[in-house]
Amino acid sequence: MRRSRWGWRAALSAGLLGLALLGATGTAARTEAPLQDAPGIAQVALADLPPEAHTVMRLIRQGGPFPYDKDGTVFFNRERLLPAHKRGYYREYTVPTPGLRHRGARRIVCGGWEPTVPDACYYTADHYASFRRIAP
């Protein structure tokens, strides 16, 4: 494989450009449109969700610690039921089901670039077959 003599210069330029794009908050500027819900997503009040969901929402806002290794990992939205966003925008969290020894089907999926300050969170009781937006 032939190496380009410009390879390291191009990488350096890209890195410097990335640094130049950093804002005052220290994060790269995002150019995505504001969050809009996909058609057919109903809302639900946090008070109407199981008590375990309240605990999970509190843990999300404080940054953990989470009981499951998978909590806080990227949710890929393969079902395409949530509004389309770039990879890494959505993260998933387990809502424990009393009496089960495994993770169960209940989840909260939050969207946003700062995990502790989500733009919106969604609840599913049927392992991503349907979602309801948790009212702010």
TrEMBL record:
InterPro entries: N1-like, Ribonuclease/ribotoxin. Pfam families: Ribonuclease. SUPFAM superfamilies: Microbial ribonucleases (SSF53933). The keyword Transcription does not apply. GO terms for molecular function: hydrolase activity; RNA binding; RNA endonuclease activity. Residues 1-28 form the signal peptide. Keywords: Hydrolase, Nuclease, Signal. This is Uncharacterized protein. It comes from Tepidimonas fonticaldi.
